[in-house]
Amino acid sequence: MKFKNYVKVQSLEEAYTLNQKKSSRVLGGMLWMRLGHGQFGTAIDLSGLGLDEIEETAEEFRIGCMVTLRQLELHEGLQAYTKDAIRESVRHIVGVQFRNLATVGGSIFGRFGFSDVLTMFLALDTEVELYPSGRMSLEEFSQEKRTNDILARLIVKKHRQSCVYLSQRNTKTDFPVLTCAVSVDEQGARAVIGATPARARVYPLPEEAVQMLESAGNLGAAEHRPEKQLEDAGCLDTAEREKVWKTAAAKLAVQIPTSSNMRGSAAYRTHLVKVLVQRALEALWQQKQQRVCGGMAEAECCDGVCQQDEKSQTRDERSVQISANMTAEGASVPQSELPITLTLNGKRTAAVVPADQTLYDFLRERNCYSVKCGCDTSNCGLCTVLLDGKPVLSCSMLAVRTDGHCVDTMEGLQEEAEEFGRFVALQGAEQCGFCNPGMIMNAIALFRELQDPTDEEIQEYLAGNLCRCSGYEGQTRAIREFQRYRAGITN
Predict the structure, then answer these.
(1) Which domains occur in the chain, in start order?
(2) DSSP for 402-417?
């Protein structure tokens, strides 16, 4: 993939104007785009428009198109609202370095069949904000053909709601074989099924499942209800619930077209629909029961604040105000070579870089040979560097995007790398040693972010680095031993 020019736009209006040319491309995280082939005209970068933030109000979440999947994963408000469903929908996507680059806008605008993110947000009351077309429902947007509009934000409206997200993967970091999200809110009860392998679609839940879920929401506090009443409502009758869930899942599976690809057959995917929907319904039941039987009223699920019903407007009726305060006096000029200034390994560095040069190539030219390319598909983690302290894949990022930022490689972190590297060697985790630089860089990021990581958090960090020699046991032991060493714990 080659870009002739690059421009960091000053407004959505400017981005839209540039995007009218067929040869132009809007940059999200660029992870999927970089696997393509061909020569393109202008790379349009939205990163200077302040669209990399999640704003929470009493009525909604406003998620900018440049928000990364890692930001979604770590946002406390979103996790509280969805009971960790959003975190579950993104935490299996490759590795931490990948999720620090991949963006919400790229995931949603691409409408990829394998998109966990699309499946998750379709299960919520979500709208997209487009320039210049205005707002429309995500469900409507997901079925439309691509246009030259610019996706600015996602808007998730708050309701009293419960939701569950599940997926099936053949391996931990692979694309999903099937994705499933089930939710109940003021707008109704729905199941969203994706990776069939077609893009996700919304289906209403069968009536018997809705009635059973409603009974969970009407139980009242358990301590004030006789056991017989709870049993009559289905709270204690597990076998009866399982029968309802199984029947509802089978009805849904009949409606959902599936087909075969390298990850699974059509028959297997149809079977997965039944399994995942059944599991999701039971999890949803347990979630609603815990809220009610635990003494918390259903109305408290949004911290006591829920969206008021309002008559929705059509797409054409909405006033377009997205870029009202973003329009700059003059437009940026697309350039084939651009000057950048960054802090590289603690030293201020100025350079002129080609528009399409990757950060990996830029670093290798400056003798940062610890940065290696092992897969060229954004999966192995060998090219990991720290961008403003966060691990990212240097092979999947343009060098020009580092302007004004700090980049650290192992050459600049020798003391930390050697200190931890001794533990890697002592645990026999170095073996061929090829993956070590990227693995150690990611471990340094882990130690900086988390003081006392759990085994699950360690595994999630290690998932972003491919090691073909080991089963990651040596690396896990090295991390644990290093933690003990830092804490001053001796055997």
Answers:
(1) 1-82+94-158 (3.30.465.10), 159-306 (3.30.390.50), 337-411 (3.10.20.30), 413-486 (1.10.150.120)
(2) GTTSEEE-GGG-HHHH
